[in-house]
Amino acid sequence: MKVGFVIARASSLDTTWTTVHLAAAALKRGLAVRFIEPWDFEVDASGRLIARAHSFDEPISAAALVEALTERQAPRRYVDLGRLDLLLLRTAPLDVGTLAFAAMVRDRGVRVVNDPDGILRVSHKAWLASCPGVRVPPSVVTRSRASARMFFGTQRLGVVVKPARGSGGRGVQRVRPKRTDELDAAFEAAAEAGDGYVVVQRYVPEAIGGEKRLVWLDGAVLGGYLRRRAAGEFRHNLKRGATAEPTAVTPEELSVVEAISGPLLRAGIRLAGIDLIGGWLIEVNVLNPGGAYHTDRLAGTDTADAILTRLSRPLEQDTPWVPLAP
Questions:
Q1: What is the pLDDT of residues 92-133, one digit of tens each?
Q2: What DSSP line would sit under 229-296, residue for residue?
Q3: Residue 206 has what DSSP assignment?
């Protein structure tokens, strides 16, 4: 069995990435692994979809895997993408060219996780804000500064402003109540950091207790951890200095996840990172959903292997899981 991982850039990987641990788990199982960067895709003269990939065929540790990729020491081999058994899309920020190639690979019968068409929709925060019956903080998603100001004026605790398509906390700011000047500057920064659409969302005071990242697969929660923000910072991204702590998943949180599971599965999303604050659904990460490393480190689980077990099943055994009961 041959598994492909599409990544944004080999030099950016580190040993905390879920992608790395998924690849190490695949190699441990005896699967061949191919890492593909966006510029590796090609269509040859016969119309085949191919890629010049970083190639691994023997078991290797996560640390050694990262070193081989970041130092570009792995053998480069051309792979016929139509002959892959599984292709995992692990790219952020979104690259529409990559999604186009991935959709063509999918149309040749290869299982692609997550579905490219679903990624295009779900990775935009307008999708989440528009899902009926899902408990998200009140917000508007707009390009209109006037609409943002109108909503802002109703929020007693201020708002969080962020790009409608983005990740890693880039372009995200908190705006204090009544500070319209701060809102305008934050709106401009968020618009430039994304695709022009901006989310203006009610500030959730429960954020002081941290944000939970849950690992979601096919409607089930495999585990998760708590991200506690750094001193002087309101964002909970680990790249912004937050720390990872063990946590339990509450029945209320499982109810929130259950509500979003149907829309995700219908969109062709199988693997996601779900972010919750105080029972509010803040974000769904489908571009490079992480969480396996810290979940396993803190809870002693093997989430990466569980994900690979599920995703590498033959298609005829690929039936939906029943979500965990709240």
A1: 888 999 999 999 999 999 999 999 999 999 999 999 999 999
A2: PPTT-----GGGT-EEE-----HHHHHHHHHHHHHHHHTT--EEEEEEETTEEEEEE-SS---HHHHH
A3: G
3-state secondary structure of 321: coil
Amino acid at 249: V
Residue with token string 């792979």: 79
Long-range CB contact pairs, 319-324, < 8 A, 24+: 320/218, 320/219, 320/265, 321/217, 321/218, 321/219, 321/220, 322/219, 322/220, 323/219, 323/220, 323/254, 323/257, 323/258, 323/261, 324/220, 324/221, 324/254, 324/257, 324/258
CA distances from 19 to 52, 225, 271 (A): 19, 17, 12
Task: Using DSSP bridges, classify how beta strands 86-90 and 111-113 pair: parallel, antiparallel or unpaired.
Answer: parallel
Angstrom distance (rounded) from CA 170 to CA 235: 10
> What is the Cα–Cα distance from 105 to 31, expressed in whole angstroms?
19
Q: What is the pTM of this model?
A: 0.92
| Rounded Cα–Cα distance for residues 53 and 41 (Å) | 9
What distance in Å separates the CA atoms of residue 199 and residue 24, rounded to the nearest whole number? 37
Q: Which CATH class is domain 2-113?
A: alpha beta
* Residue among 51, 47, 48, 41 at smallest CA distance from 97: 41
In DSSP terms, 270 is beta-bridged to none
| 207-305 and 2-113 share a CATH fold | no
pLDDT in tens, 231-251: 888 888 888 888 999 999 999
What are the extents of the domains in the chain? 2-113, 138-203, 207-305
Distance CA(305)–CA(25), nearest Å, equals 6
Q: For domain 207-305, say whether CATH 3.30.470.20 is its number.
A: yes
d(CA 103, CA 92): 17
Return the half-sphere exposure (C-beta side, CA atoms, 13 A cut-off) of residue 158.
16
CATH topology of domain 138-203: Dna Ligase; domain 1 (3.30.1490)
